[in-house]
Amino acid sequence: MHILAFGDSLTAGYGLPANQSFAAQLEQRLLDMGRDVRVTNAGVSGDTTSGGLARLAWSLEDKPDLVVLELGANDGLRGLDPERMRDNLDAMIRQCVEAGARVILAGMRAPVNWGLAYRKQYDDVFPGLAEEHGLPLYPFFLEGVIRDPSLVLDDGLHPNAAGVARIVDGILPLILEELDRLEAAS
Fold first, then answer.
1. Please, which residues have CB within 8 angstroms of residue 179's CB and are 6 or more apart in sequence?
2. Sign of the C-alpha dihedral, residues 159, 51, 132, 126?
3. 55-86 per-position pLDDT tens digit
4. Candidate list 8, 9, 21, 123, residue with the active-site label
5. pLDDT tens digit sequence for 5-45
6. Is this prediction's pTM over 0.85?
7. Which domain range does residue 61 map to?
8. Which one of 32, 36, 155, 186 is the catalytic residue?
9. Active-site annotation holds for 158
């Protein structure tokens, strides 16, 4: 099975050795469990959903079976329009499905500095898209990580290797469910 980890710096492994990135740790964990998988790291630091949409077709040429779609954090940090973010994510989900891949949507939470109205609009995007498309949703990619100084780099935003391991722990049950569905269907 081929898993495409498609996202921003949180997927890319900003500030970490390549073997400690989300994709590398996920692949190693699955291999250790006896799963026959390959996980491709398609994370680009600083990427927004607009940038992701622009480069997705190239990443899908490798025919992934499963896509972990993790984008939106930089849209929120920059205060970009949540409706545009929603449209970009919607288009990416559609492209993945049309390419024959299953999708797990990894959600984010808006930064608090943009105000309540922005946060509500932003935070509603991920569960709304998951429901609309019938996708599994990992509600917050940084769950259990972002407020723990022992799990983030000095910038307070990016997970360190232990933080990435925590993310893998959290999302792994969803990934295993999807891999089981794919294996049952093949």
1. 1, 30, 35, 37, 66
2. positive
3. 999 999 999 999 999 999 999 999 999 999 99
4. 9
5. 999 999 999 999 999 999 999 999 999 999 999 999 999 99
6. yes
7. 2-185
8. 155
9. yes
